[in-house]
Design goal:
Strands 1-2-3-6-5-4 form a six-stranded antiparallel beta barrel. A six-stranded antiparallel beta barrel has the order 7-8-9-12-11-10. The chain has 311 residues and is an alpha+beta fold. Among the domains are: 79 residues, Trypsin-like serine proteases (Thrombin, subunit H); 94 residues, Trypsin-like serine proteases (Thrombin, subunit H, Beta Barrel), CATH 2.40.10.10. The radius of gyration is 53 Å and the shape is elongated.
Length: 311
Amino acid sequence: MPRIARYSSSRRDPAPDAGDATRAAPGPDAAAPAHKETPEMAQMQGRGARRPSAAWLLLILVLAANAGVFGYWFAPSRQPPQPQLTQKDIDDAVLRTLNTHVLPSQSARAAARIAPSIVHVVGYVRTRRGTEIERGEGTGVVVVGNGTILTNLHVVQGSRRIEVQFADGTTSNASVVNIQPENDLAVLQAGTVPKDLQPAAMRTTEGLQAGEQVIAVGFPFGIGPSVSSGVISGLKREFQSPEGKQVLRNLIQFDAAANPGNSGGPLVTMDGEVVGIVTAILNPTAARTSLGIGFAVPIENAAKAVGAPPF
């Protein structure tokens, strides 16, 4: 009788007969029976198949490292703290500058500030033959930007023509528009005015004290503009003209050198501000040169001649 098959048809060898005593039990190398694949096993195999390669892992590590470096350098909290200046730092810097740089003196700074406002004033007359000759010269100071100039009356009095020269070299004829004989002052108006003409800064004499430093700026003997320095020697002084014809009162006394030609020029503080108009020097000798005592009309009085107070 034919043997009944126990398994479905396959290429496997037939199973040994149980009654065959000469057959040994299956050894460890025998094929294990097949197991059915479960969904969990398939999922695990899929994960293993998608495992990243070594190249991808290396790229991820490089990108992470770069991100960390950029975050370090650009994070606001990583910026180095700025040093804060102390008063000692400032004092040390100022001291170093004073020790290593030669700074302009106060007088030099004052002279530089007033320089654009200084004017050379010359008066002319005609002789009988019609020749024009110089009658006198002095100094003026621009007090209004339209070419209004303060000077001494004795500088221009009796002149047939007045010529002024500004700091930039511009020359112009000028006319007398007002006088103040009691203070020996005259106000001139220039016909031609330079562009950007700079008027002088003026300071009240209130609070002015003896001993304060000043400079006198002008054209002594026609040389200039020249600067001399000194101090305020006194206030509310009087001066009588050599001929005894006039007495000037409420004057500022100063010791900066002033000579013929300084008349009408400004007396200037160390701030570069005009406090007076130089009007006379005390000299009992015939030489009529500086002996160290000069007088200036306070700027408050001089400004009245212009027609408006400057303060």
